[in-house]
TrEMBL record:
InterPro entries: ADH-like_C, ADH-like_N, ADH_Zn_CS, GroES-like_sf, NAD(P)-bd_dom_sf. Its cofactor is Zn(2+). PANTHER family: GLUTATHIONE-INDEPENDENT FORMALDEHYDE DEHYDROGENASE (PTHR42813:SF3), ZINC-TYPE ALCOHOL DEHYDROGENASE-LIKE (PTHR42813). This is Alcohol dehydrogenase. Belongs to the zinc-containing alcohol dehydrogenase family. Residues 32-134 form the Alcohol dehydrogenase-like N-terminal domain.
Length: 357
């Protein structure tokens, strides 16, 4: 690779404003680094949080994106487990040997480490922070996209069920039928749920949920809790929040905590609640502790580390048992990314994948 070579990359230059810019192709900085030549990347709901916040300026663009896969272009001298040419998924956070929870979240791509919506990505701690996948240049594009989602949303949809204490046979209410919610519903079906309810207000998303066997619940029509309780008089045994702090009510207004309150109402005694929707706002969220205690509920939440379930999810895809790419609504080139942020933000897209030559 020529010195001073540049690549095309997506970057935030202000609120609701993504720009495609030239950036230097990243180089090995530490002996434990790898440089990945990206073949596919994706736009995620968490990118939209930054998009809304208005990070970056035209003078100081902030590279974005944290879901990608590709093949290894080069490695540092200390890298042993992966080799130049290997196909790998880049999980959205890095294993630096001590994953953190709490105030210090794990190191992740995007504003912190450089964006993955770019032709090349530098991966620190490459031996532990990459997920090898059994593909090559002749693998069909839909299988490649299946693996791409192990980087974040498939792992997140899978893990939120663990947070809720999921067991086969459970009934599950999934709040949010965006990409993560759809893959949580899909994971619940794969893992033997007896019934899955998918709650949203965007018709296209509810249609996809129905296509994988979930029961669509449109909260615009009436109270989602009442709709689910009409099917499950005692409540569902698990409910999961795949929405987070930007949740809206039936009037389309942001109503902080609405999903948490719905989950408390719709979950049966001794049931479990899982939360992977992001809560980054400073607002306090109210829910009834008395209800929580009287129902003897349990609750799990947090950031998901895709590396924890990587082998399991890669094997499911390799064996043809899972194909999470059913959520993809558009496959685009890097220059189209600004327009597709707009479309994704307006719920005109379910999931957008960026393909590179
Ligand atoms: C995005 O920022 C660029 C650079 O400042 C500006 O030219 C463009 O009009 C902005 N676009 C939107 C949609 O705000
Ligand atoms: C790609 O992988 C498939 C399946 O593992 C294998 O059959 C095929 O020979 C490989 N092709 C190349 C070009 O390596
Ligand atoms: C539900 O209401 C919101 C806000 O009023 C609207 O944007 C959305 O299109 C509606 N969805 C359905 C499925 O009616
Ligand atoms: Zn993501």
């Amino acid at each position: 690779m020529a010195l001073n070579a540049t690549m095309r990359a997506a970057a935030l230059v202000g609120a609701y404003n993504v720009s495609i810019i030239d950036l230097p192709i990243p180089l090995i900085q530490d002996t434990t680094d790898a440089i990945v030549h990206v073949t596919a990347s994706a736009i995620c709901g968490s990118d939209l949080h930054y998009y809304h916040q208005g990070l970056g300026t035209p003078e100081q663009p902030i590279p974005i994106g944290h879901e990608a896969m590709g093949y290894i272009e080069s490695i540092g001298n200390a890298v042993q487990n992966v080799h130049v040419g290997d196909y790998v998924v880049i999980p959205d956070n890095v294993d630096d040997g001590h994953f953190n929870f709490g105030p210090e979240l794990p190191i992740s791509y995007g504003p912190q480490l450089g964006g993955c919506q770019a032709e090349y990505v530098r991966v620190p701690f490459a031996d532990d922070s990459l997920i090898p996948v059994p593909v090559n240049a002749s693998t069909d594009p839909s299988t490649l996209m299946d693996y791409l989602f192990v980087s974040d949303i498939f792992a997140t949809g899978w893990t939120v069920l663990d947070f809720a204490g999921f067991q086969p046979g459970d009934t599950v209410a999934v709040f949010g039928a965006g990409p993560v919610g759809l893959l949580a519903a899909y994971s619940a079906m794969l893992r033997g749920a007896s019934k899955v309810y998918s709650v949203d207000h965007v018709q296209a998303r509810l249609g996809l949920a129905e296509s994988i066997g979930a029961i669509p619940i449109n909260f615009n029509q009436s109270d989602p809790v009442e709709q689910i309780l009409a099917h499950e008089p005692g409540g569902v045994t698990r409910s999961v929040d795949c929405v987070g702090y930007e949740a809206v009510n039936a009037q389309g207004q942001i109503e902080l905590g609405v999903v948490l309150r719905n989950m408390m109402d719709v979950t049966s005694d001794y049931g479990g609640i899982g939360v992977v929707g992001v809560y980054l706002g400073d607002e306090q969220t109210s829910m009834s502790m008395t209800q929580f205690w009287r129902k003897a509920l349990t609750m799990g939440s947090g950031i998901v580390l895709p590396l924890q379930h990587a082998t399991e999810l890669v094997n499911l895809i390799a064996n043809g048992r899972a194909s999470p790419s059913f959520i993809v609504s558009s496959t685009i080139g890097i220059e189209d990314v600004p327009e597709y942020y707009r479309r994704f933000d307006q719920h005109l897209e379910t999931k957008v994948v960026i393909q590179f030559d």
